[in-house]
Amino acid sequence: MTALPAPAKLTWSLHVTGTRPDGLHLLDAEMVSLELADTVELTETDDEPRFVAVAEYPAAPRDAVVGDDDLVRRALRFVGRRAHVALVKRIPIGAGLGGGSADAAAVLRWAGVTDPALAVTLGSDVPFCVAGGRARVRGVGEVVEPLEPLVRTVTLALPAFGVDTAACYRAFDALGPRERQHPRNDLSHAAELVAPALVEVRRLLEARTDAGFVLAGSGSTLYCEGDPIGLGVGSGEVVETRWGAVRLLVTRTRGAPGA
Predict the structure, then answer these.
(1) Beta strand 83-89 with 51-55: parallel, antiparallel or unpaired?
(2) Closest CA to 41 of 96, 78, 3
(3) What is the C-alpha separation between 78 and 118, in angstroms, rounded?
């Protein structure tokens, strides 16, 4: 049995630079791994593989059932290996933290598959999650350029709802040029159109902490730099909104791959 960490990825900045003829969006992003991580346990077998998923979300409980098209199963089929899988999910689903991609990347690392051109066939975040640490990510995710380590404390705000990534990109495509631009994350306006509750959540958090919160990926997670004492909040604290509870989680970036 091999137990592998599957760290969440935090999109430190994200800019959409164009669209390919096949409809996929071209990105220029900076990504960094977090200490928040799933655990993927793999035991190679010749028998019928078993798959068990347990949820330990640091937010409102969500559905932990994983279907046949789950990225871990797809990754195993991709590398041509059979294994029993025990998956501990700590990265919330639909939160913009790359939880599914991180799990798939753990399978690829286990199988010795590290080529970004292969990893991207499973998803745009998978090549970065295979590499980990901090990197500039371009193309549709297949160009991963390592950067100097970035060690920061960050506070994640985890709403009880998710944001559909495909719907977010469709909303982005319908925006005018000025509405698409954002200093840190070009998907911010689109995500707030898809999930209007994000606007209220962000404003409540900013009013309470006097900190600026940024959208993580396509959402729904919002984050800011800082420790709980400096922000006047505590890790695990819950901010109640009419859209449900928003749990705050303080974590740190992983300064380098394997750190």
Answers:
(1) parallel
(2) 3
(3) 9
Q: How far is Cα 112 from Cα 110, in angstroms, rounded to an integer?
A: 6
* pTM of the predicted model as reported, rounded to 2 decimal places: 0.91
The kind and range of the H/E element at 28 are strand 25-44
Alpha carbon of 170 to those of 23, 65, 187, 211: distances in Å?
Answer: 10, 27, 10, 29
Q: Which amino acid is at 69?
A: D
Q: Among the options 38, 103, 125, 186, which is catalytic?
A: 125
Closest CA to 90 of 7, 19, 176, 33: 7
The DSSP-derived string for 196-254 is: THHHHHHHHHHHHH----EE-TTSS-EEEES-HHHHT--TT-EEEETTEEEEEEEEEB-
pLDDT tens string 131-170: 999 999 999 999 999 999 989 999 999 998 889 999 999 9
The question of whether 125 is a catalytic residue gets the answer yes
SS3 93: coil
Name the active-site residue from 9, 38, 89, 186: 9
CB 216 within 8 A of CB 191: no
| Ramachandran area for residue 47 (φ above 0: left; ψ -120 to 50: alpha; else beta) | beta
